[in-house]
Amino acid sequence: MITTSVRDLRDALPPQGGILLGLDTGTKTIGVALCDAGWRFATAGKTIIRRKFTQDKGVLKDLIAERGVVGMVVGLPLNMDGSESPRSQGARAMARNLEDLGLPILLWDERWTTQAAERAMIEQDFSRAKRAERIDSHAAALILQGAIDALVGSAF
Question: Is the distance from CB of 86 to CB of 100 less than 8 angstroms?
Fold first, then answer.
């Protein structure tokens, strides 16, 4: 199941919660983040250098199995006016290609996440090289944090 609705994702997840995987997909890299099972905080993970999709999917499949992931949040890069772009279509294609892993997938508006991640990393005094190396995973953490905040907020 692929959705843009937080409620639909919540309904598809186990009632006791569980670890979610956040993805910031790009043409060269995939930023990865994970959250705790109680949906309190997202943590930046690794950045996957994109190769063939089957290889990328294999890395994600292994991570899902290793961490016991119950759902995914894929960043949806929208234009500032909310319309979709070619990058949006790439994120939707990624979600469709991951759908057969059997996990519910939420497409989450990721406008400004990369800029916010960069700003936070500058404030933490990351070098330019470290920022370049880790920006996508930090953006994935912001995407995932926004989604889990909405999930917790929609619980009541």
Answer: no
